[in-house]
Amino acid sequence: MGLPALEFSDCYLDSPQFRDRLKSHELELDKTNKFIKELIKDGKALIQALKNLSTAKRKFAESLNEFKFQCIGDAETDDEICIAKSLQEFAGVLQNLEDERTRMIENADDVLIMPLERFRKEQISAAKEAKKKYDKETEKYCAVLEKHLSLSAKKKEAHLHEADSQVDHVRQHFYEVSLEYVFKVQEVQERKMFDFVEPLLAFLQGLFTYYHHGYELAKDFNHFKTDLTISIQNTRNRFESTRSEVECLMRKMKENPHEHKSISHDTMEGYLFVQEKRSFVSTWVKHYCTYHREPKRVTMVLFDQKSGGKVGEEESFTLKSCTRRKTDSIEKRFCFDVEAVDRPGVITMQALSEEDRRLWMEAMDGREPVYNLNRDSQSEGLAQLDVVGFNVVKKFIYAVETRGIDEQGLYRIVGVNSRVQKLLGLAMDPKTCADVELDSTEWEIKTITSAIKYYLRMLPAPLMTYQYQRSFIKAAKLDNQEARITEIHSIIHRLPEKNRQMLDLLTKHLANVASHHQQNLMTVANLGVVFGPTLLRPQEETVAAIMDIKFQNIVVEILIENHERIFKDMPVPGGGQANLQLNLQPRRKSAESKAPSCSERPLTLFHTPTHTQKVEKRNSVVVNSTPEPQQLHPAQANAPHNNPSATRSSSTAAVNHNSSGSHGHSWTQRNSLTSTDGDQDGGLMARQNSQSRPNSLVPGRKARALYACKAEHISELSFIAGTIFENVHPSREPGWLEGILDGRKGLIPENYVEFL
C-alpha cells in the first residue's frame, strides 16, 4: 500500500490523523536516506574492487607479455612460433579489455556516486531541514497559544487586542511553514522516482558497454584461437611420438652407461673433491674440474649441485705432475696428488671411484708414488713467530694502512683462497719475498688482509696461547668493565715476548682500522668478531668452547680500545683477578651450568639489534640480522644462548665461529659481519654508520616488552610481555638497557623491547 496524500488544507487543522500521515512520509524519507547511503558505500566498494581487479589483470597481462618461450634446438616450427607468440596475444586481449574497464570505472563516479550524493544532500537533507523548522515553529506556536489563553479577561482591552494580534501572526507563520514542509516532503517522494533510479541505469549501461566490448574482442580473437588450438594439438602429437624414442635412449644409457659416455682424448672433466687444510681440520670441497691435455691446464670451479649455482671463482693452474696417493697414507679412498707449475704446494684430490681415478691419472699422465723414508716430516705449512713472520706482517699492515684503510668491509671480506696462499707463500719465501710488490694492483686489499689472518691461523698455537686462553675468557666474563681491563692487562704481560710483540703490532693496527670505521664500516665490535676466534682459538673444538666465542670477541675489543694502556703501561702489581674477587662476584653462573630461565625468549645465538642500537663507538655499525633456524649448529638448539647473562658481555650483533675466515665451517651465518668464503662481494655489509644512525636511545623514552623475562640478578628487572618501561636509555652493559618499572630502576635485555 502506498503513502497517503498530504492535503494542504490539513495543515490548518493539524489533526492527529494529519500528523500520522506526515509521520509515515518522514519514515519513508529516513529509510530512503539510509538506503542511499548504503548504496553509495557499496558502489564505492564495487568501484574499488573493479580497480583492484583491473590492476591484477593488468599485472597478469604484463607477466604474460614478458615471458618468452625458448624452444629446444636452433629453429622453430610454425606451430612453435604460433604457441610462442600466444602469450603476447593473450596479454593484448586482456590489456584491451582492461582499457575499456578503466573507462567504465572513470565514468562510474560521475554517473553513479555523484548523482546519488547530490540527491541525498540537496533533496533529502533539505526535507530534514524543513522538518526541523516545522517542529520549531510548532513548539513556538503551541507555547504562544497556551500563554495567550491563560490571560485574564480583566486585562485592559488594548492589552488583549495586542495579544490577539501576536497570536494571529504566529499562527499564520506556523501555517506557512507547515505548507512548505508538506510541499517539500511530497516533492522529494516524487523526485526519487527518477533522480534516484536514473544514475543506476547509467551505471548499468556502462557495464553493458564493457561486456559488449568483451564480446566483440572474443569474436575478433576467434580466428587466432582456432589456429592456436590446431598448433597445440600438433605439438602434443609430435611430443607423444618422440617421447617413446627419448625413453628408449634413456633406457640404453641406464643399461650401459660406459658405452654411451663420451670420453675425449684431449679433455677430461668431472667432479673432484679437493683437500683444503684448515687450522683445526682438513676439509674436502667439491669442485668441477676440467683438464686440457695439450696446454696441461687444470681448471677448478667450486660448484654446489644442490643449489645449482656457482659458489666460488674459477681457479686454474698448469699441471706439473700427478701421483697416485697410496691407500695407507690417507684415510680417504681414490686420492691422488697433483703439483702445479705456477702454484706452490701439493694439491690432494679425491675421485668419485677407482675407475674415475684411473681415468684422471691416464689423462694427466699420472705415476705411482715413490716415498722417501728419510724425508723430513713437513709441518703442514705452519707459520712461525720469527723474523720472517714479523717482517711479513709489518709489510702487509703497511700496505693495508697506505692503500686500503678506508675500504668497506676491511678484514671481513675475504680474498680468493688460492691467491691468499700464493701471496703468503711468496712473501715468506726468502727467495721471492723481495719480489712481492704489495703496491701493485696485482694484490687486492682483501687478499692482503686475508693473508694476515691466514698467517695467524697457521701458527702452531694461537697468538694469545692455549695456556692463557681460559684466563682471558674468565676475565671477559667479569661483571665490571674496569675489572676486565685490569685482568686482561695483567695476563697480556704474562705472554711470551714474541707473542706480546706481535699482538701489540696487530692491535695497534686494528685500532687504526677502527678509527676509520665511518668509512670502512669496521667498528671495534666488528673487528672483534673477525679476530676473536683467530687469536683465542681453543685447543680442542667443543660445544663449550664454541659458546665462549663471544667472550673471545670481547677480549679482542678490550685490547683494541685500550691498546695504549695495556701494551705501553706495566700492570699494577697484585692488580689482577685475585684482588678483584673481594668486591666483584660474578652476576651469573656460566651458561654451561645453568639453563635459561626466560623460556619465552627467542632462541638465537646472538643479539639482533633493532632501531634502538647503542650510540657507542664500537657499536656504530651493526648488521641487523636474524639467523635462520636451519643454519644453526645442532649444538645451538639446546645451548642457553637466549640467556641474557650469556650475551651481557657481547657488544656485537653476531657471533660466528667462522668469523676469522675459516673455510668450510658449519657455523657460517649469512648476514653477520663475519669473514666467510662465500661472502666475497661485500653485499652483506652494514649499510649504516655512526653518522646516519638515528638517536633512538635518548633518556625519557618509553618501551614495551616483547617477551617475558625473569630476573636472575638483583640489578635486573622481571617482567611479562606487554610491560611498559619508563625512562629507557642505554646502559654501560653491552646488549642491555636501563629502565624504570613500578618505580624501580634496573637492567632490561635490549632485544626484548621495542620503543614506543
UniProtKB/TrEMBL annotation:
Residues 698-756 form the SH3 domain. GO terms for cellular component: cytoskeleton; cytosol; endosome membrane; focal adhesion. Signal peptide: none annotated. GO terms for molecular function: GTPase activator activity. Residues 639-655, 667-677 have a biased composition (Polar residues). It is found in: Cell junction, Focal adhesion; Cytoplasm, Cytoskeleton; Endosome membrane. Residues 265-369 form the PH domain. Its main location: other. Residues 87-140 form a coiled coil. Residues 656-666 have a biased composition (Low complexity). Residues 383-567 form the Rho-GAP domain. Residues 585-699 are annotated as: Disordered. GO terms for biological process: signal transduction. Keywords: Cell junction, Coiled coil, Cytoplasm, Cytoskeleton, Endosome, GTPase activation, Membrane, SH3 domain. Pfam families: BAR_3, PH, RhoGAP, SH3_9. InterPro entries: AH/BAR_dom_sf, BAR_dom, GRAF_BAR, GRAF_fam, PH-like_dom_sf, PH_domain, PH_GRAF, Rho_GTPase_activation_prot. This is Rho GTPase-activating protein 26. It comes from Oncorhynchus tshawytscha.
